[in-house]
């Protein structure tokens, strides 16, 4: 992604509105069972970005904490009015969020860089040939562009999958 102009998004009712100050670092399509349950869709599309690059334009999302298989909490931030989830924080890193791409006004600008947990993908869910994919997870060093990896490492948080 080279376009650094802002992305905007909102919950379904519009009480929560946000803006991304720059493009996400990386975009996941996650086919795990938890993501399917939580979104009600065939997979979740999450854009990974620094929390400091997410600007709240209106409203204040409310945190809902889910337990995960890793033992680290998964905080899902929802609109207090309509309940729509706008982003989450897998593993409570706090310095980074996973924007739910379908809540962006132009989600087509954030196609998945990598499909993960494809071992549990539904048999009728197509995965584009041009997208990266892995059965479970991957090594960030192998898959992330250098510039994105540098941004991630500046956050000082543990690597994904670690
Ligand atoms: Zn709402
Ligand atoms: Zn998942």
From TrEMBL:
GO MF annotations in UniProt: carbon-sulfur lyase activity; metal ion binding
Superkingdom field: Bacteria
UniProt keywords, alphabetically: Lyase, Metal-binding, Zinc
Matches recorded under PROSITE patterns: CENP_V_GFA
Keyword Signal: no
Domain CENP-V/GFA: residue ranges: 7-125
InterPro entries according to UniProt: CENP-V/GFA (IPR006913), Mss4-like_sf (IPR011057)
Pfam families cross-referenced by the UniProt entry: GFA
PANTHER family xref list: CENP-V_GFA DOMAIN-CONTAINING PROTEIN-RELATED, GFA DOMAIN-CONTAINING PROTEIN
Family listed: Belongs to the Gfa family.
Name by which UniProt lists this protein: Glutathione-dependent formaldehyde-activating, GFA
